[in-house]
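Example record

Each entry pairs one chain with its bound ligand, zinc ion.
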Amino acid sequence: MTKYSSKINKIRTFALSLIFIGFIVMYIGLFFRAHPIVVSVFMVLGILFILFSTMVYFWIGMLSTKAVQVVCPGCGKPTKMLGRVDICMHCNEPLTLDSELEGKAFNKAYNRKKLQKK
Ligand SMILES: [Zn+2]
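Structure tokens for the complex follow.
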């Protein structure tokens, strides 16, 4: 069985890993202290990763305002969903806004179909 997670949570994990990559790249740069040019290249790369991560965080903020707040039928907690189908942030219960899809097995392809129609 594939483990799904909420789209917003997925993007958050991605942004967090970018920050870690940024710090790792800068840390690697410290091993080249004898070559200031190499160090600065690593530092700039690390800063770029962290800047990109803040952009991703900003994007999550934008997405969150567009996300629909629903009360999860599984755990009763309020959660946010993106697109026609998403997963509850708290209990990973599949959620849908489309009554046609209600009761059907969760499938990421439903989101793609929506995109194709546009
Ligand atoms: Zn839930």
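The first helix runs from residue 7 to 29.
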